[in-house]
Amino acid sequence: MTQTNPHAIPRGSKVLVTGANGYIASHIINVLLELGYIVRGTVRTPMPWLQDYFEKEWGPDRCELVQVPDFQKFDAFDQCVQGISGIIHVAQALPSGSGVEDIDAAVAYTVNGNVNILRAAATQDSIKRVVFTSSIVAAGYPTGPGFKLDVDSWDTCVSQEASLSKQRSAYRECKTQGEFQAWKWVEANRPGFEFNTVLPWFTIGNVLHSKIGGSTMGYVTGLLQGNTLPFKFLPLPWHVDVVDVARLHAIALFSPSVKSERIFAAAGPLIWEQVVEILRHIQPNNPRIQDSPPDEQATKGEVIPAARAERLLQDHFGQTKWTPIAASLIGGIDEEK
Q1: Residues in contact with 215: Cβ distance below 8 Å, sequence separation at least 6, in sequence order
Q2: How many domains are contained in the chain?
Q3: Where is the NAD-dependent epimerase/dehydratase domain (predicted)?
Q4: Inside any domain, residue 288
């Protein structure tokens, strides 16, 4: 850490992290514990293996897990926000259905859960910061070259006309409306805490425990088994390392200079040819790794706030730059002879 200014939330304070067993959330907890915070993590069902993991890594009384099985209950978070100084809300329910009616219900589910935790946070004078995990899709998923994303960029689904479209995506709408409506709630209710969001792109890197779902990293490890599905439905994203994402969440929580910000976690363009080349370097004797799609072109454009995020990593964690894609993949995949 190179930052010398006092933290908005001092080390030793207790921080609530929702969805503690998730890929990104588990890394956020790891970073917070490394920085000296105490963590209360939420899970939907008992997960003693996760408690054991953090106790083994960081010792007893540093991380506790509490159950919040249903975010839809009005008082779902009322107990777990007691004694908390800050919140990082990662666990936002996302649907698998694609029908219009399913999407509408799923969006309402996501937004209601987000509002419930904001409302609970606002009842506690001790809570000074709330950070939400969003997604780059909330700013608008680029489909071709020449795109430009900025802090005021939003996916088209926030417009009234978009709700009538038959070409709808449950994931995009839940992520977009989940963040958009949270900002609207904060604007309307003016709570006593500072509110920030983090918008990661395609997140890769180490999975902390075998029982933690790898999320987007799972698509990469699937390539090691010959699964080429990501080539079809995840064309040409940008990448970011999971530790960089976790650190940006921590910065959004403690940095006095980060106020009412959307932090864009996007290191640079990714093409599958590059990923396949690195995977074959890591596992040179793996015949199941398939060739990447032919004639790929990187999704070139501008993610203007990404430069701000990179500077935050430099200022607060001493990084010289975003973690390179090769380092992310090498750190996240076991060698195999």
Answers
A1: 22, 23, 24, 203
A2: 1
A3: 15-189
A4: no
The predicted-structure confidence for 303-327, as pLDDT tens digits, reads as follows: 999 999 999 999 999 999 999 999 9
- 316 assigned to some structural domain: yes
Q: What is the pLDDT of residues 218-270, one digit of tens each?
A: 989 999 999 998 888 666 689 999 999 999 999 999 999 999 999 999 999 98
Range of the domain at 258: 14-213+240-267+302-323
**Counting every residue, how long is the chain?**
337
Q: Is residue 89 part of a domain?
A: yes
190 belongs to a structural domain: yes
For 140-180, the pLDDT digits (tens) are 977 667 889 999 999 988 875 555 555 778 888 999 999 99
Nearest 5°: phi and psi at 301?
175, -160
Report the alpha-carbon distance of residue 116 to residue 120 in Å, rounded. 6
- Non-local (6+) Cβ contacts of 280 within 8 A are 286, 289
